[in-house]
Every structure is written in C-alpha cells, then in structure tokens.
Specification:
Elements: H1 2-14, E1 19-32, E2 38-39, E3 41-53, E4 59-60, E5 63-73, E6 85-98, E7 101-108, E8 111-133, E9 138-142, E10 156-168, E11 172-181, E12 196-206
Antiparallel strand pairs: 1-3, 1-12, 2-5, 3-4, 3-5, 4-7, 5-6, 6-8, 7-8, 8-9, 8-10, 10-11, 11-12
InterPro entries: Beta-barrel_OMP_2
Protein name: PorT family protein
Keywords: Signal
Length: about 240
Amino acid sequence: MKKAIAAFLPLLLAGGAGAQVGLSGGLNIAKYSYVSDRGPLMSFNAGLVYRKALRGTMVWQPALTWSVKGATVYPAIPIGSTNPNEKYLNRLGFVQLAAPFYGGSSLGDGFRFDIGAGPYVGYLVQAKQTQKRYDGSEADVSFRVGGKDAADFTPFDAGLQFGTGFVMGSRLGFHVLYDLGLKNVNASSNQPALKMRTWSLNFSYYFRGGNGGRKSSGGRASGGKRKNSGSGKGLGGF
C-alpha cells in the first residue's frame, strides 16, 4: 500500500501534459457482503484525484481518499435480554487508492459522459464501533486490527471499483461509484467471510483548467495548414 501511494503522489505533484489534479469527495452508503441483521451505514469519503486522457475516448482517473466503510448491525434481542444496545455502527476508515479507467463520449456544451471500472486497494487505519442504546445514550469502542484470530479485522482490502458519471466543462465532475470488495477482511477464521460493498456519490473539483486531457480534434488541411476545429474538444477528455 505504501508503494502504491508513493507511486501516486508524484502524479499529483507533476500533473503532466494535458492532465488535471483536484479534490474529490462525497457520500458513502456502505454495507457488508452478508446481510443477516446488517444494514447500510451512511458515511463519507474525501481526498485527491488525478485525471488524464489516454488514447481515443479513454480516461484514467485514479484517486487517493480517506473512505469510511462498514455497516449498521442490529442485534437479535431475545425475550428477557438485558442488552441495552439498539444497534451498532461499525465504521472502518480506509486509506484507499482506486485507479479506474473510463470510456465515454462528449455530450456537447462541455459535458462528457464517463463509464468504466478499475482496481482499488485499501489500508484499514481506524476501526470503531458506536453502540446506540435504547435510552438515547451511546458509547464508542475500538476494534482490533491485525492478521490473526486475536484481531477483529485484517488491515488490507482490495477489489474492483465501478463508476459512471459526468464531467462538466473542465472543472466539475459528478460520479456514482460502487466498490466491490473481493478480499475477506474478517480476521477470524471461525466467522463468515466479510467483504466490503460500498456505493459512493462523489463530486470532484479539478484545479488545473488547461485542456483537462482533451485530445485535439484539429487535422491537417491538404495544403499543410491546420484546420480550425471550432471548439477543439475531443472525446478523450473533458
């Protein structure tokens, strides 16, 4: 994970020809892969994003974010139980690096449509549980993170991120993302496999106006002079 972050940071600092860097963040709706007595957790993600046009209509948009995943757990309350807790909010804070590739097309007036997917990896930095009680009070406890049965969660997550959305002009983006966790993050071998399932509604603001990675649509006239293409917007970027 450290190597992945170390490889990503120079991209943000250097930018690169036709590339943009910016901020991205939004709402997470997180769950576990198994749903028995589990419900969605409303949380957030925020971080840095890099966007660069590749060949044709392809765009690469990796992002380094702080992403809170997890689930809401509703305990079974048998008759006569003295359990004071109504529900548990399991919040798992990951440093996450996602690297999706998007295909798409220009919709005119500075709008571009994106759709695609790519891998993601995450490192679990913080794992906490908020116990919501029937009397309105609450208490926070910390989970144990490690790689053995003595821990509650393993430190690493990995999977695929699917996304679709729009980029408006060269500054604003909106994407709907879905993280499909493929790695079991439950440290106990005696319990069911636990994988992350997270929807995200994200807004991005790109600092570098530039061409945002657009491909020039200008050609060459028969006389060797470059044609005037009008707007100059291609399908490879914004």
